[in-house]
Amino acid sequence: MPLDTMLRRLLVLVPLLAPAWALAVDKDGFEDSFNPDPAQFSPTGKNDYFNLEPGHQLILEGTEEGKTARLVITVLDEIKRVEGIDTRVIEEHESLDGKPVEISRNFFAIDKKTNDVYYFGEEVDEYKNGKIAAHPGSWISGKDGAHYGLFMPAAPKQGQKAYQELAPKVAMDRFEVTSVSEKVTVPAGTFENCVKMQETTPLEPEVKEYKLYARGAGLLTDGSLKLVKQGKNIELRKQKQANAKKQAKRATTQKDPNAPEPLVPHDLAREALGSVGADPNAEVLWVTAINDPALTEHQRSDLIEDLNEEGFADPKHVTAEELPLVMSRLALIEQLAPDAMDQTNYDAFMEAHKDLTNIANRLTQQ
User: Fold this and answer.
1) Helix (H, G, I), strand (E, B) or coil at 294
2) How large is the greatest C-alpha to C-alpha distance in the chain, in angstroms?
3) What is d(CA 230, CA 221) in angstroms, rounded to the nearest whole number?
4) Beta carbons of 309 and 350 less than 8 angstroms apart
5) CA-to-CA distance for 135 and 123, rounded, in angstroms?
6) pTM here?
7) Which tens digits make up the pLDDT trace of 253-279?
8) Distance CA 365, CA 41 (A)
9) β-strands 117-128, 209-214: how paired?
10) Which stretches does DSSP call E strand in 168-269?
11) Beta strand segments in the chain, E
12) Measured between alpha carbons, how far is residue 136 from residues 104, 157, 170, 334, 352 in Å?
């Protein structure tokens, strides 16, 4: 066989001979396809650089815009189900001169087989003058084409590149490990063999940010912010203090405050949920349930967030005839949200309001 013919045939065969383990990457070499076994996901656990154990906190401080900046990261004792996966909720509270500028709830799960941590979405509240002004960058895996990304590999390798967020046109953060041998000194101490990550996004190609992570400590630096201390329950969240007082007050109305029974059984509350916005009696049962501290945070959150699904003939294809129910529920949320019993309820109200608003916008533009 002529040599040139043999070379042409080899060139055709090369793609077919690529190894089965080859990663799916984008044009810039960033891994963008992740398919671990869903049965291996857990909302609790940790690898050397990232902790998903409830109560764990990181506090970073620095200066931004000439003001004292502070970032408090708290692993909450709270689960959010995303695409059938139980994910851990991590709150990030950012402030300037003691005033909140952004509070986000981020959803993570760890692959128990590999110890890689995956990122399933976030809910973002941006503050101006002490009030929520916008929700930039909010996304959730499984909605609007979004898919979870790899946030922190168990064993980062120099040159490794992967997407942390895959929410088209909303959030497309990605990392590249540029070093695994940095020596870093921050107020919390001096650390060696640290991992340095360069973060970029195709949505803003000119922007580059760097973060440093230490084995056993986690995030050391985020922009100008540096780790001051880390540990379990080192700073009680003000919201949790307020919630505890509210729940203690409510518990006194129960016959047995040490073992309160739900005022409305959860299954009955779920049944009433389908008629909220249409039947005043069902609404009374539902409102009682979502303000009952005897129900778990997860139960209350579901009773509120599912306002965008329960009661509709086909939740994925809400019709124009069902628009009055959508508008009635939006009005109800706007009435109840300002006096939400705790942050869990408030966040659930915001999630339901966002989804119902999207439905209303779609129906009114048809």
Assistant:
1) coil
2) 93
3) 13
4) no
5) 7
6) 0.62
7) 444 445 468 888 888 888 899 999 988
8) 39
9) unpaired
10) 174-186, 189-200, 209-214, 218-222, 225-232
11) 41-42, 56-64, 67-82, 85-96, 99-111, 117-128, 131-134, 139-140, 147-152, 161-163, 165-166, 174-186, 189-200, 209-214, 218-222, 225-232
12) 10, 31, 8, 20, 17
Contacts with 53 (C-beta within 8 Å, 6 or more apart), sequence order: 44, 45, 46, 75, 232
The conformation of residue 261, written as its DSSP 8-state character, comes to P
| Burial group, residue 221, by CB count within 10 angstroms (0-12, 13-18, 19+) | buried
Average pLDDT over residues 340-345: 91
CA separation for the pair 346, 89 (Å, rounded): 15
> At 243, is the secondary structure helix, strand, or coil?
helix
Contact 294, 253 (CB under 8 A): no
4-26, pLDDT tens digit by residue? 544 444 444 433 433 333 457 88
User: Which residue is associated with the tokens 């303000």?
Assistant: 291
* Token couple for 279: 């039947």
